[in-house]
Amino acid sequence: MSTHDTANDVTAYSVLAAGYDVVMEHVDYDLWASHVQGLLQDFAPETEKILELGCGTGSFALAMRQLADYTYVATDGSERMIKVARAKAEMEGADLQFETADFTDFRVDHPLDAVLLLYDGLNYLLDSKDLARMFDCVFRALRPGGVFVFDQSTPANSVNNEALMEDSGEAEGFSYVRHSSYDPTTRIHSTVFEIQVLGREFREEHRQRAYSLREILRASRKAGFECVAHLEDFGHDEASEESERIHWVLRKPAKA
Predict the structure, then answer these.
(1) Half-sphere exposure (CA, 13 Å, Cβ side) for 121?
(2) Which domains does the chain have, with CATH numbers?
(3) Mean pLDDT for the chain overall
(4) How many CB atoms within 10 Å of residue 45?
(5) 169 with 22: CB under 8 angstroms?
(6) Is the pTM for the entire model greater than 0.90?
(7) pLDDT score at 255
């Protein structure tokens, strides 16, 4: 399928939401939730109130629900993704709250024990100003001693795996082809989805920035966070600039 000449250009996740779970079927959300749950047990064992940013269609939130009885609110910037998430939760009988929110500009009514931002959500922030706004929002939302757990895809991931980020898939009424490219100068990773939904053709372009470990450490410290851990992929080894994925645990100082 090639829709470049005939497809309607649409904003990110406006159409892809309908088949996002097809695109992400390779992701082991149970493994991811188990890893994050382990980080919370290690670094914030008293966690009860959690806010998830960039929750997509809610798969991670549903997996976390199976592990512990948190007070859990999941948010995403795309109303269509949230609509899918709510429908999935209703089908599973899950008592989860889903809301639309921009993770560079949000407020909470009560301080949180933990904030989560996973699967490259941070990489959608394309400049340092947006990154700073996100860290400031999360810092304000946390109680003193609360933690921010997130991951990032690094420049090493884009350089090492650019050739592997081409794929396609389909389900009933939905199909897609994905093309990716990486500019090492700007460190912008562009992904184009050519999508067919019920016979209609669309084109979505997603742009992400690959941040270095040093940039994230500097920006988080500037916002007031203490770095508790930066771990390579899903393990417990300290990450480096050569790591392809980094899981971070930041803490708001107890006396903040």
Answers:
(1) 25
(2) 8-20+158-208 (no CATH), 25-153+211-251 (3.40.50.150)
(3) 93
(4) 7
(5) yes
(6) yes
(7) 83
